[in-house]
Write a structure and sequence with these properties.
Length: 344
């Protein structure tokens, strides 16, 4: 329904313009909620750390991965058909450094057909992000260590079906947690290249990296809003980790969570009205929360005291329903375990 035609139909009733605005706002809100009902949130959970998906209200939890080694950092493809993640399942150790490395995998949205994309013996990979056209992924990769301490990492990009990764940052600092802008023009990332953790923007080809936060606190984990006008991020500028939003140029940073707990790893809903994140405010292990984009109406959607629930990734509105693989949870309540499968 077009707004103009709606207005013409309401005017003969002589509604107060304030009531008309309220009616339109409620209509838009109901449309938004209907759209979000078809989306999914991927996240990592459990002591053995697997990838799960759930509805935005925390219902209908499906376990996607089932491997004895760590699976984490899920990221949805733009069409909702695939998910990239980091895993230790092909675990190797670099003997002279003693460093455990992860690799970037891609799987179907129902958890089938996981493929190791990076296969780099000498490097440790983490945190991936998709280009808006779904053809490439950017990710963090590291190869320089001092004992067990990472001293260098860069942002790489590669074709989503594999190929030779290209180093976009090529800097001797730590460059991490990339997030591709919705229009494909930029990649936001966090770096300590100026002596402090800040958020940077660079062109998608790696040129012109620019510090947009310039704050003495630690700022990191950028996440673009769907309209590309804002970036959500994590910062300790108020004394502990909180979720902030700022304009895409780094101005007007606003603390959304304002809580003494640790709030981290934000992810926007596809319509830009809500933000998911993880927090230890109700559980020291961490739960997934959803709030409106202005920080109001906070809801704990996992309420899982027995395991950690971390790193939400909110899928697109076109996300496909996932097959249960025998792991569909239909009862909401306390957590029980049967082997490696979680049932609620």
């Amino acid at each position: 329904m077009k707004h103009a035609s709606l207005k013409r139909r309401i005017q003969p009733c002589y509604l107060h313009k304030g009531l008309f605005a309220l009616a339109v706002n409620l209509l838009l809100t109901s449309i938004s909620l209907a759209q979000l009902a078809d989306t999914r949130i991927a996240f990592m959970s459990g002591w053995d750390t697997e990838i799960f998906v759930m509805n935005p209200d925390g219902e209908q939890i499906h376990q996607l991965t089932d491997d004895p080694k760590y699976d984490g950092d899920p990221a949805w493809s733009p069409d909702g058909k695939r998910i990239t993640f980091m895993s230790y399942r092909d675990l190797k150790q670099i003997p002279e450094r003693g460093v455990i490395r992860g690799e970037i995998y891609v799987m179907n949205a129902d958890g089938t057909n996981p493929i190791n994309l990076t296969r780099s013996v000498e490097k440790a990979e983490r945190v991936s992000t998709w280009s808006p056209d779904g053809r490439q992924i950017a990710f963090t990769s590291a190869e320089l260590f001092n004992g067990h301490t990472l001293v260098n990492s860069d942002i790489f990009v590669m074709a989503v079906d594999g190929g030779d990764p290209i180093n976009l940052t090529n800097h001797d600092a730590l460059d991490q947690t990339p997030d591709w802008s919705p229009n494909g023009n930029w990649i936001a990332f966090s770096s300590n290249r100026d002596g402090n953790w800040e958020i940077y923007l660079m062109n998608a080809d790696g040129t012109n990296p620019t510090n947009i936060t310039n704050h003495p606190a630690k700022d990191g984990r950028p996440d673009w809003s769907p309209d590309r006008n804002q970036i959500a991020f994590t910062s300790d500028r108020d004394g502990n980790l909180e979720i902030y939003i700022m304009n895409a140029d780094g101005t007007n940073a606003i603390n959304l969570t304002n809580h003494p707990a640790e709030d981290n790893r934000s992810s926007w809903s596809p319509d830009g009205t809500r933000i998911a994140f993880d927090s230890n405010r109700d559980d020291p292990l961490g739960d997934i929360y959803v709030m409106k984009a202005d920080g109001t109406n906070l809801i704990n959607i996992t309420q899982n005291p027995d395991d950690w629930d971390l790193s939400p990734s909110w899928g697109p509105a076109s996300a496909l329903s996932t097959a249960s693989k025998g792991k569909l949870a239909t009862v909401w309540g306390n957590v029980k375990r049967t082997g490696t499968h979680r049932v609620r």
